[in-house]
Amino acid sequence: MHRFFEDFTLAGSRLARQSPYYGDGMIASFNELLAAGEGLDLAQVFLDSDAEESGFTQQQIIDALTRRREVMWECVRRGKSNSGLSMGRLVGGEAMAMATAFNEGKTFLDPLTVKTMIYSLAVMDENSRMGVIVAAPTAGAGGVVPGMLLALEEERNIAPEKTIRGLVVAGGCGSLVSLKANISGAAGGCQNEVGVATAMGAAAIAYMMGGTTRQCVQAAALALKNVLGLVCDPVGGLVEVPCVKRNSFYAVHGLTAAQLALAGVVSVIPMDEIIDAMVRIGRALPRGLKETAEGGLAMTPTGCAIAERIMGEANEKRQLAADERERVAAERKAERGEGTN
Amino acid sequence: MGPVMVGPSSSHTAGTARLGRVAHEILDEDPVMLRFFLHPPLERTFRGHGSDFALVGGALGLDVHDPRIPEAIRIAEQLGVDVDFAEEDLGDVHPNTVRIVAKGAAREVEIVGSSIGGAAIEVFSINGFSTRYKGDSPTLLLFYRDRIGMIHQVAEAIAKEGINIASLSCSRKERGKDAFMQVDVDSPLSQDALERILALEDMEDARYLDRIP
């Protein structure tokens, strides 16, 4: 696991070597987390283990995540009231369209679900416009966790402190997955991005709703299991289609997983084995379905036409830049020539 | 959870900005020229992800969450920095790999590194010396003439500061010629300590890099 992820996830099992909850062993799997965290506050288990090894105090970890929650809220507020187009002009305004329908009483789902969709779309709309977001665990899947957690916070009047501890749980779970799997579409398809995000979010929601450690892990397992095999086939190679809307789908998917887990439903296949399966599926996926934009939706007639347009615009931009450089060079040359005359 | 960053892709935007930032930190001055040589798969996708803004923004010293990143190329123009992008086959490497050449008034820096996902990076060549730098801990980069006892003297200078060395690796171009040492340390190194290391005989350049944000 790379340190950067750990530092900002601020919860990692490799860091738990001296965890008071696990003697001198280290939590390297969800199974070990279940053993170490049984009957304990899951966020506290992650906080203790991380503070132990990372050199950060628990307060520093909480402060860092407090800031991240604020950035998430700012991002959601900007995103749902801006219909500007993305850089590739394929998306934009999805969050605003949903928010408008909701405000006018034209949505039929319950408010928690609708807000989850609006907020996850808002983050992704901002992301596609190069706005400031929080990677969770990546940018391309960055709408899922804030969409779920912030909607729940608002709809159920949950204290911000609890949401922040939910972020600890989400980060800790993501960090545990990353011990075995690379968190990128290039490594194993979208299951490795949005799949991991929905598992992180599901665990956090279960935690915020008062679930036990076992229920949180079950929520993550149910969420991840049901996203296995999802490919990464972005049109034109951009984080726009299908990424933006997909985040709203899997945010709701995560809510489903958390709801099932809290009702006592368990995954037959344990979380650790699901991660192993995800890694094996990722290896088996053809290269064209792993972020290369050489398969799937990217290779549909519409997808190809869009890619061609984007490539054409990029080449145009490159040519303009080259012409400009030549012009500037010629100007400088002329200036120097005049100077010596 | 994190980092806080400018979208749209943690590997194409945040990771590439951090690679640019590594070049900036080693250069330790304002660049006058920046050249980016992109491995073919990255060359095909980098504009759509804003990697061009991110690479330049990082090389100018901007953080991954700096809202000025989308404006970075314009800012570079205003500062009179000569910026160019080109495609280059960098061999059997991660798809998102780039070679960066940054020139300032005093130094010139060349790094080759990959953005490996979730904003994580791996730099595997610095000024032609092979290495493995991830920007996740305070690190000392030393350029010196290869000779007996250099590692000992460097280790001693760091130990005197009461700082623990997490890892140390060396590489050289030829025995007795240009050599490079990367020392990852557990806690920040003072400017004084850096000066003392720089004053060692045969030490040509010494750069201290904090964790790359």
Molecular structure report:
The complex is a heterodimer of chains A (341) and B (213). Chain A has 341 residues and is mainly alpha-helical. Chain A has 2 domains: 3-289, no CATH class; 300-340. Helix content of chain A is 63%, strand content 1%. The termini of chain A are far apart. The model of chain A is unreliable at 1-25 (pLDDT under 50). Chain B has helices spanning 10-27, 40-45, 51-59, 72-78, 150-160, 191-198; strands at residues 4-6, 33-38, 82-87, 97-103, 108-117, 120-126, 129-133, 139-145, 165-172, 178-185, 203-209. The two termini of chain B are 14 Å apart. Chain B is globular, with a radius of gyration of 17 Å. Chain B has 213 residues and is of the alpha+beta class. In chain B, strand 5 and strand 6 (120-126) form a beta hairpin. The interface between A and B is large, with 56 and 43 residues. Strand 1 of chain A pairs antiparallel with strand 1 of chain B.
What are the defining features of this structure?
heterodimer, A: 341 residues, mainly alpha, 63% helix, B: 213 residues, 60s Ribosomal Protein L30, Chain: A, Alpha-Beta Plaits, six-stranded mixed beta sheet, four-stranded antiparallel beta sheet, 6 helices
